[in-house]
Fold this sequence. Notes:
Elements (H helix, E strand, L loop, with lengths): L1 E10 L2 E11 L4 E5 L6 H8 L7 E6 L2 E2 L5 H6 L2 E4 L11 H7 L4 H5 L1 H11 L1 H5 L10 H14 L4 E5 L7 H16 L3 E5 L3 H7 L2 E6 L2 E6 L1 H5 L2 H7 L4
Parallel strand pairs: 3-8, 3-9, 6-7, 7-8
Antiparallel strand pairs: 1-2, 1-4, 4-5, 9-10
Helix pairs in contact: 3-7
Amino acid sequence: MLKIDRLCVNHGLASALTGVSIEVNRNELVAVIGPNGAGKTTLVNAIARILPVHAGDIFFEGEHVTNLSPLELGARGVALIPEGRRLFTTMTVEENLDIGCYRTLARTHRAASLDHVYDMFPVLRERRKQIAGTLSGGQQQMVAIARALMSRPRLLLIDEPCLGLAPIIVSQVFEVIAMIRDSGVAILLIEQNAVKALKIAQRGYILDCGNIVAQGSPAELEAQGEIKAAYLGAH
Length: 235
């Protein structure tokens, strides 16, 4: 479904990604993990066409999309949940959700999509008229996830969804991501919490210093002693 081939991204004169290649298949959750500064957010923003690509190619469902705009990519069924949530904090919860309905298909199914996300996050139904900026951090993350789902995506790009959240909320967010995976939406998950990410992923890539240093199933990654010690929390 998604294929990234030898992607290179620069920040000014500095190289942020060097020849990164990854794939996400249909109905698959793939995690990209690694330390701070590894290039994870740069990768997902380049895929979402927010950042320019210096070299390499991005394919979605067999189509070359490297030169598309974020809006054009979104129209093909790719949605991004950005790091930091990026809500319109002076608008209500439901107004934020409506922004997710920019695709024609999504507008057609607005009522059904609202029911779906409100069933997934009952607290948002209760607070649908509340100003988004007054919600807790966990509730704001629910709005960010729900807004992306309103676009009825086929591929969901999720960047550090648990940053700054309390441990109990982190567990709830991972449960929701697993539910979305089980519904048939392909997911590329960018996450620093390697242990939790690999528990719900079918495959994982480890990104460090702008390069993929390991890849495989969670079991394959954990079986590599040096990789486990360096990146998966073993001491």
